[in-house]
Amino acid sequence: MRALLILNEWLPLLSITPTKLTINGDAPQTLAVRNTSKRAWNVQIIPAPWLTVTPAELSLEPEQERTVEIKRAGNPQPGAVSDPRAIVIVAPGREFEVEVALMDSGVSLSVPHPGAPSDSSPSPNSERGLGGEVNLKGTAP
To answer: What percent of the chain has pLDDT over 90?
Structure first.
């Protein structure tokens, strides 16, 4: 008995570098997206509302690498913002995530992914919103 096994790439294999970005001020950052597959893929790049990306779509041939420019889109809130899913690269059947932190005045504020459990009550200097705790006075909650 003989068997013939044919494997097709059903899901894209992408290499994203870096997987974490920090944007300090208005200086843009770049992200490298490389197709490590043996076939071409089209991907969309979806940023958080406080970011812009250029280009928003890529067509990648096998082993091709393209760069994406990431910029701040206005000032999302006082202090700094960090989100582990600030940029989502959507390919057929798969998503890739890039964490982005915006830094202002040396204060760090983490915005949890929607639906993430909260293990503390709001501090007197903060309010709860859809994205988690928002610091109103620029101090740590």
So the answer is: 44
Q: Where are the beta strands (DSSP E) in 1-141?
A: 14-17, 20-24, 29-35, 41-47, 51-54, 57-60, 65-72, 81-91, 94-103, 126-129, 132-135
Give the residue numbers spanning the domain of 61: 14-104
Contact 115, 96 (CB under 8 A): no
- C-alpha 69/C-alpha 29 separation (Å) is 6
Would you put residue 74 in left (φ > 0), alpha (ψ -120 to 50) or beta? left
Q: 19 in a domain, yes or no?
A: yes
Q: Which CATH number do you get for residue 37?
A: 2.60.40.10
- What's the domain count of the chain? 1
Neighbouring CB atoms inside 10 A of 48's CB total: 19
pLDDT tens per residue across span 83-114: 999 999 998 888 999 999 988 645 444 444 44
pTM: 0.66
